[in-house]
Amino acid sequence: MTTGEPAATAPRAPEALGGSGGALSAPPVNRALRDLLLAMADDEFVIGFWDSEWTGIAPVLEEDVAFASLAQDEIGHAQALYRLLADLDGGDPDVIAFGRRPEEYRHARLLDHPRTDWAFSVARRFLYDTADAARLDALVASAYTPLAEVVAKMRREETYHLRHMLAWLERLATGGDQPRARLVAALERLWPDALCVLDGVEGDDLLVEAGILAEPLAATRRRWLAGLAPELARLGLPGPPPAAPAAGCRGPDRSDDFRWLWEQFTMVRRSDPEAVW
Amino acid sequence: MRTVSETEVWEALAEVPDPEIPVVSVVDLGLVHTVELDERRLRVELLPTFVGCPALELIRASVAERLAGMAPVVEVEMTFAVPWTSDRITAEGRGKLRESGFAPPGPAPAGDRPLFSTIALRPTAACPWCGSDDTTLENLFGPTLCRTLFWCNRCRQPFEQFKAV
Questions:
Q1: Are A80 and A87 spatial neighbours (Cβ–Cβ below 8 Å)?
Q2: Pick the CATH number of A22-238+252-264 from 1.20.1260.10, 3.30.360.10, 3.40.50.2300, 3.40.50.300
């Protein structure tokens, strides 16, 4: 397959990466594609588990319902992305999802923080969802058809996430001194790590060349920030720091909070790894 | 074995209810992507409504069970080949939803639209009980992934809307 072929004619995994010649079969492109898929899958997986931490204790019953749905959507997206990875390598999506050590996960540092208070969870979700939306836009016309198909479906669900989080951002920003102060503090704390969501993966220029990704992630990040700026200005909320995020955006160093979450979400599987569900 | 026609296959599919909203069938919801039939094989491809919908395997298995025996080989699979959108729900399906207290979805945002440009959209719904447009969005999310919660200010009843995705 050559760059610029219409997505519809792209071969499907795993043949796509095993074929002779062509950009997709080149090892550095394979590696970059796997890194991108794993980063996205881990992002969705980990935020889904943090969301689920609100079940039963959200500030209002409606948010118990909403965060449970958000969590279910995100873990469903992670499952579909782990499936794509498993199709490339002949593995098992559940093993990829649950069978790694904490330092082997590749989610962005933004998702290493615990759920903290409601304003913190709202701020993080707003920053994550908007960054993820920009990333999904860059993949909707991907030459790697299995990914383009999953992304097309995910985007239709993510629009509900975006709308919900904007509504909460507005509610807290205009809801009196305490909610606003908590929201501003959370955004200031989270911004540097939020930039990590769209930190480049090694070889993303090769993905662009192969038509898998529409633009380097640095360009996606600029597009994301440009889209957010008017909303943040309208609500008088803090924007991003000028500096790029420090190294180690996607591990291997992990917070104690993430290690605690990992203990939780792998507990059942670790109790009997051979069990059949 | 008697050879079945494609019409009979579609009639059989129309008898398979959605497990979460059983008043509508998989045909009403537009879940059937393709039906391929010859003397040896019947192959049906279904579109998942939501990526993380826990009912997908149940839907696939119910369809396979209903079609069993209609050809020597019956295959039923889920595919992401085209994204399922709520615009695929048929007029008949919308009528059935309304009759059982679900507001049908409005038009879904175009799939190629930049995602961020949809952030300020808010769904609206007419009350399926009394028909009033004087309704309030209570929660974009609901008891299953595909539902949104509304309140009717006129007949003072809660109701659900199928998400416009």
A1: no
A2: 1.20.1260.10
Report CB contact under 8 Å: A164, B143.
no
How far away is chain A from the Cα of B40, in angstroms, using its nearest Cα?
Answer: 26
* Interface membership of B165 toward A (CB under 8 Å): yes
User: Which of A65, A69, A153 comes nearest B51 by C-beta?
Assistant: A153
Mutate to test the interface with A, among B86, B89, B140 (most CBs of A within 10 A): B140
- Per-residue pLDDT 10s for chain A (277 aa) are 333 333 333 334 333 333 334 455 578 899 999 999 999 999 999 999 999 999 999 999 999 999 999 999 999 999 999 999 999 988 899 999 999 999 999 999 999 999 999 999 999 999 999 999 999 999 999 999 999 999 999 999 999 999 999 999 999 999 999 999 999 999 999 999 999 999 988 899 999 999 999 999 999 999 999 999 999 999 999 999 987 777 889 999 999 999 999 999 999 999 998 888 7
State whether ipTM is beyond 0.95: no
- Considering chain B, tell me which residue range(s) the CATH 3.30.300.130 domain(s) occupy: 6-78
Joined together, the tokens standing for residue A236 give: 């008088």
CATH code, B6-78 = 3.30.300.130
Q: Do A130 and B116 touch (CB under 8 A)?
A: yes
Angstrom distance (rounded) from CA B160 to CA A234: 32
> In three state form, how does the secondary structure of chain A look?
CCCCCCHHHCCCCCHHHHCCCCHHHCHHHHHHHHHHHHHHHHHHHHHHHHHHCCCCCCCCHHHHHHHHHHHHHHHHHHHHHHHHHHHHHCCCHHHHHHCCCHHHCCCCHHHHCCCCCHHHHHHHHHHHHHHHHHHHHCCCCCCCHHHHHHHHHHHHHHHHHHHHHHHHHHHHHCCCHHHHHHHHHHHHHHHHHHHHHHCCCCCHHHHHHCCCCCCCHHHHHHHHHHHHHHHHHHHCCCCCCCCCCCCCECECCCCHHHHHHHHHHHHHHHHCCCCCC
**Residue where the block lists tokens 């080989």:** B73
